[in-house]
Amino acid sequence: MCKKLSVPTITRLCMVFQQCDELLPQGVARISSSQMGKKIGVPAHTIRKDINCLGEVGDTGSGYDVARLKRHLERALGFEKSQKACVVGLGRLGSALMDYEKFQASGFSVVAGFDSSVNRIETIKTQVPVYPAYEMEDVIRREAIEMALLAVPAHVAQATADVLVSCGIRGIVNFAPVVIEVPASQVQVRHMNVINEMRVLSSLMTLGD
User: Fold this and answer.
1) Fewest C-beta atoms under 10 Å: which of 2, 5, 151, 182?
2) Which domains does the chain have, with CATH numbers?
């Protein structure tokens, strides 16, 4: 069992978990590391190595028991506890994130939304409570929110991230098209830059020709 998991390992294990979540309703009871690897684009030996980092999962001679593997990953990766999240920036993207139905089913609960525009707050249609940006600290601390989805314009992303960190947020999914800096020892950040992903995809397409 590994003492500390790297970010790439955690990322792959989350992909394995997602596959287990999709396979069970299809009636798939067992899956080999080779089959799993093909599904997520990772070599079979890497799949086995990653899963072994979490300890024994049971007999793997004829593949992994999908239900058992899912439970094992759920415990090891901390998915048993529901995570409270908030959305900061309620433009088109932020508004869509507010009511994304699969959050709840995946163990994430969006409990608040924030925006600097009072007009936007008054007109947005959502079942999630929304607040002006200046109330972030009070609401985040009161609701014990640890995760934030940041969907603000690039020019205010860093300042908004700084406020979130000061409020006690421990994880940020950054949708702003700019890299934000946070204290690495306190806060984890995932950057979701669509343009950069398209650049990567374009390069892969070009270099693969």
Assistant:
1) 2
2) 7-76 (1.10.10.10), 83-196 (3.40.50.720)
How far apart, in whole angstroms, are the C-alpha atoms of residue 69 and residue 87? 31
CA 16 to chain centroid: 14
In the numeric block, which tokens belong to residue 136?
Answer: 């972030």
Maximum separation of any 2 CA atoms in the chain, in Å: 60
What pLDDT, on a 0 to 100 scale, did the predictor assign at position 59? 61
Scored b (16 or more CB within 10 A) or e, 142-176 reads eeebebbbbbbeeebbeebbebbbebebebbbbbb
Average pLDDT value for residue range 145-173:
97
Q: How far is CA 46 from CA 8, 13, 26, 51, 62, in A?
A: 11, 10, 25, 9, 17
